[in-house]
Structures are given as C-alpha cells and as structure tokens.
Specification:
The protein is α+β, with helices and mostly antiparallel strands. It has 18 helices and 26 strands. A hairpin with a 2-residue loop joins β10 (148-150) and β11 (153-155).
C-alpha cells in the first residue's frame, strides 16, 4: 500500500468516524474540558510518613511548589497537606536531597524516603545564552561529539561544571593492544597498569603516571551497564564515544564504587540520543556482555513470600479445598480489594470459571470510582479474553480520566479487541485531533505517541477491508516492513510503581530497563504529567531461542501491590499476528524474580 492510499484511509476515518458534525465535536470538547477543570480544582488531603529509609524524620518541610502553602512533619515523620491534581509537593530537609512528587487524581498517601544530599547535577544546566536540558543534549547527540550518554543522563564538558573529558571513537587507534591502551593514548593523566606477577588483570587509573599505588582502578559503564573489570573484550572499532570523569566527581555522581573514576563508553551496538523520525524503540536484541547467573527467584518461591491467603490457595490440594480457603478468608478480608482480585485470578487459572465469575461481580463493585483498581480488573479480563467486561471497565476509566493519554490508548485497544473496529478507529482519530490541536499535553511524549501511532497503524493495515466497505485486504505500510520479531508491551496500574525489568537473551546476556525516580526521574514525571504507564520493546529475529523476562520490584509510595500486564505479540503487523497476555502481582520488593519466558521464532510459546 503506497503512502497516498494510506493517507486516504486515515482521512476517511477522521472524516467519517470523527468529524460527523460540529455539534458532536462541541459536545465532546465541553465534556472533556468540564471534566478536566473539575478534576484539577478538586482538593484532596495527602498524608504519609517521611523517613531516611529506616527512621522517621521530624521537621521536614512539605510544601506545594510555587505557593506559600506548606507544613512540616511531626516527631513520627507524619504529615498531611491539602493539594489538588497536577500540584507538585516538595519535601526538603537540611542534609537530604529534596524530593518532588506530582499529584494525581488518586493520590492520597505518599510515603517518602529522603536520601543523603550528595551534590547532584541539576536537571537544567545553564549556558551563557539559555538553559539547556538533558533532552536538548540528547537531541544534539550525533551533532555534538562532546556529548556522552550515561546512566545519569546526557552530559557535556561545556555544561557539567567539572572535568569531564570526551573522546570521539573515530580518534581511537584501532591498532592499539586493547581499549585501555587506546584510551591512554588519547588522554594525558590516564595510566594503564598490567599485573606484573603474571596474574590476569589490566587496570586503568585516572591519575598521573606512577601515582596508582594504593589507588583504586576506574570502573567502566558500557552503554549503561556497569563493569568493575576492564572491558578488554570490547572491539575498539565499535566505540562511538568515550567520556572520563575523575575520581572526586565520579564518587559524587556514581557513589563509592566509582571512587577511582569512571569511564563511560558509548558503542554503536545501541542507539543513543533522540530516536529516529519513525520513533522506533532501540533494539534490545543487540545485547552484549552482562551475564545472567540464573539467580532470579521462581514464581513458586515468590508466592511463598506473599500474602497468607495467596499461599494457602496455591497450596490447596483440590478446587474444593481452595474454595474453602476463599470462604475462610472472606469475612476478615472483605475490605481488601486485592483479596478478591487475587482469588479471581487463581480460580480463572484453575479453569473454575463460574466460581471466579461470582468473585468478579463482587469485586468490581468494591472498586467503583477507583481507576487504579478498575484497571487491574480490566487487565485480568484482557488476559482471560473477557473482552466485553474489559471494554466496560476501560469506558469507566476513560470517563474518570479523559485527560490521560493512556485512557485513549486503552479504550481504542479495547474496542479493537472487542471487534468494534470503527469505534476503535474513531478513538484514535479523536486522539490525533486533540494532540495536533494542542488540546492534550502530549505533543512531545515520544513514548506514548510512538505506541499509539504503531497501534492505530496496525488497526488500519490489518483491517482496511473492514473499515472501508467493499475494499480488499491492503498491504502493510513500509514502516512495518522494517521489523520482524517480537513486540513486548508492559503496562502497570500504579504510576508510583518503581521497578527494573531484566531481559535475558538465549545466550544468557541481559539488559535492564530501570523505572525508578533515581535512575529515570524525567520519564516518571512525564508519565504523571501526561497520564500514561506503558512501555514497549521490539526484539528482532537475529537472536532466536528462549528469552527470559525478570523483574525487580522497588515498591510504590502507597505501600500497596502493583499489577503489571504484559503482552507478547508475534508476527506483529502481519496477517498471522497473535498475542499472549499475562498479569503479574508485584509484591516482593528488592529481589529479582521471574516473570515469563517466550520463544523468539516463528512458533509461539510462553509460560
């Protein structure tokens, strides 16, 4: 299908399905803005406890950013403050790093941990002309050879305020003995030391020659992955850029492990900077050296650490015994929405559908008006192919959150699954209209725009003959031609959730994606301001075999469980496209444990 035909389809959808009349448009905009205004003006009490990770902190200043409103914590670290959605609450205390949280419609409890105040690089660095954000540095990555991509963000010697030295990979001597010698040849004050006793070991010291006695060797960060041993295995020709931060500044930025300095290496193996115009995510199939040691806890081991009722259910010897466990816990846990959610999931997994349905009817009533818990039920209905029930919940969530970009994606996705293709297309058209007119604050939200564009294209391409009466199946647009492999989509119900995802390829090399305020505050704040909680990954077919996906859950500020929905798409964008949906309850914190595995091949298999 050529681009002109594809554009005609989109124009058709927008004209026939969305712009049917000024009255409908006016009615929708009135509903949208009246709901938005009312949600922003609604005051709510935010409360919680502030600690240093162990003990409560008294006299912490808790303020609404940009106002004179505020309070302080008491001797038990407790506070409460009146706020409204989109407000920013700041927690500050002498000797601790200040912490900011964006308030959402469901925010009522925020338990905050303040860290020691090591001097941090500000999110906005100042030049003589104008402020420059890390996003600006990312945009200029390929145009400015002094910009280096690190795990703490994009850095440039002109802007960081300390001695950061950056070397272009083109300037490295590819005939050097290894990457260490190549670095030393380019940078004065860097010394390579080889163990003279015959023991294996080559070290790099960010100091003058002969000054390494008693000092610590530098550590290495290669494409975001930290190594304490020198990466002598690295192909010099694959190096795109190298940055070196000396010991004192490295200690402040990266902690004690970097007290000997840090060498940041960007390679051609991953994409750096702002993505290409097509917005395609980087390919995590291009994994390198981090080796997985099979140390993730199994699902059965995680359940052992979970709620008592959950352990008892999974230890039941029969369905009848499991029913009795449910009834025994029903009265004492009747106020816990998670008890009903988890029980439903258990009995559906055991194919005890009628009993599960009774639980679902009761459970949905207990979470009315709560978009976080309504979303959990919708996740499970998706996983168990209860499309009609899922659609009703996504409609409720949309009415509760019409200004959240996630609401548009979820509702369109639900209509698509339910088989109402034209209604799905109309939601996508509505989203595109509001985005292009600036009526939703999502223009620069690359992640969600990419996901929604991909899924709306997918709807049109695979169902063009149904959307255009009398038509025949049309070929895919060119952007679908460039990808063959697995598409992974992760969604989580709670925007306060923090976790690391670990992808382990068939060669047991792994890559981690961090969703925490420490590692990725800009991303999390963007999620809250625009209202989304989704991430996608594309894995090409260059590494066939068994892949594992693990998670290390860090918790949320409500001290409640988080639910993670995962969708694995096979043959995405092809006629034979298929998917597998799973939902996981994240409750065990600080431990890497298994989620699922899948087979990267033409077949379909997922645990």
């Amino acid at each position: 299908m050529n681009s002109s035909n594809y554009s005609l389809i989109l124009q058709y959808l927008q004209t026939k399905l969305f712009q049917k009349g000024h009255f409908l448009m006016t009615l929708f905009l009135f509903f949208f803005f009246s709901t938005l205004v009312s949600s922003q003006e609604r005051n709510q009490i935010i409360s919680g406890i502030v600690t240093d990770g162990k003990l409560p902190i008294e006299s912490v200043n808790v303020t609404i950013s940009g106002t004179k409103l505020g309070t302080t914590t008491d001797q038990n670290g407790k506070y409460d403050i009146k706020s409204k959605p989109s407000d920013i609450i700041e927690f500050s205390f002498v000797g601790k790093q200040s912490f900011q949280v964006i308030i959402e419609d469901v925010t009522t409890i925020l338990n905050i941990v303040l860290s020691p105040d090591y001097e941090e690089l500000d999110e906005v660095v100042v030049t003589k002309r104008k402020p420059t954000t890390r996003k600006d540095l990312a945009k200029n990555y390929y145009g400015n050879p002094t910009v280096i991509n690190s795990s703490v963000g994009y850095l440039s010697p002109e802007l960081v305020g300390y001695d950061l030295r950056v070397v272009d990979g083109k300037d490295l001597n590819t005939s050097s003995f290894d990457i260490l010698d190549a670095i030393a040849e380019q940078l004065p004050g860097v010394t390579v030391y080889t163990n003279p006793n015959g023991a294996i070991g080559r070290f790099l010291f960010v100091r003058s020659a002969g000054a390494f006695r008693g000092a610590r060797s530098a550590v290495f960060e290669v494409d975001g992955n930290l190594f304490t041993d020198a990466p002598i295995w690295l192909d010099i020709e694959s190096v795109l850029r190298i940055g070196i931060i000396p010991p004192q500044q490295a200690l402040i930025k990266f902690g004690k492990i970097a007290s000997g300095g840090i060498v940041i290496i960007n390679t051609n193996g991953v994409k750096h900077g702002i993505r290409e115009e097509d917005g395609r995510p980087y390919d995590i199939a291009k994994l390198r050296n981090n080796i997985f040691n099979d140390d993730a806890l199994s699902t059965d081991e995680v359940i052992k650490y979970g709620s008592t009722y959950l352990r008892d259910l999974y230890q039941s010897n029969s369905i009848r015994q499991a029913e009795q466990v449910f009834e025994d816990n029903r009265m004492k846990l009747q106020n816990s929405p998670y008890f009903l959610i988890d029980s439903y999931a258990y009995f559906m997994k055991k194919n005890h559908f009628q009993f599960a349905e009774k639980i679902a009817i009761e459970g949905k009533k207990t979470v009315e008006g709560n978009p976080l818990l309504l979303k959990v039920w919708a996740y499970y209905f998706d996983a168990y192919n209860q499309e009609k029930d899922a659609k009703k919940l996504y409609e409720q969530i949309f009415n509760l959150r019409p200004n959240y970009v996630q609401s548009y994606r979820d509702l369109a996705y639900s209509y698509h699954r339910y088989g109402n293709l034209k209604k799905s297309a109309s939601i996508y058209a509505r989203y595109h209209y509001l985005r292009d007119k600036g009526l939703l604050n999502i223009v620069d939200s690359l992640e969600m725009n990419t996901i929604i564009e991909r899924e709306s294209d997918n709807l049109v391409v695979l169902n063009a003959n149904k959307l255009l009466s009398g038509g025949t199946f049309l070929n895919r647009p060119e952007e679908f031609e460039s990808f063959n492999g697995i598409r992974l989509v992760f969604e989580w119900n709670d925007s306060e959730a923090e976790f690391d995802l670990q992808f382990v390829n068939p060669q047991k090399h792994y890559h981690s994606w961090e969703h925490t305020m420490i590692a990725n505050p800009e991303r999390i704040n963007d999620e809250k301001m625009k209202g989304y909680s989704t991430q996608e990954f594309l894995i090409d077919d260059s590494l066939p075999g068994k892949w594992m996906v693990n998670v290390n859950y860090k918790g949320n500020k409500r001290l409640e469980p988080t639910y993670l929905k995962t969708t694995v798409y096979y043959n995405y964008g092809h006629k034979k496209q298929s998917k597998v949906i799973k939902v996981f309850k994240l409750m065990l914190k600080g431990v890497n444990h298994e989620l699922f595995y899948f087979i990267n091949s033409n077949g379909l298999s997922m645990n």
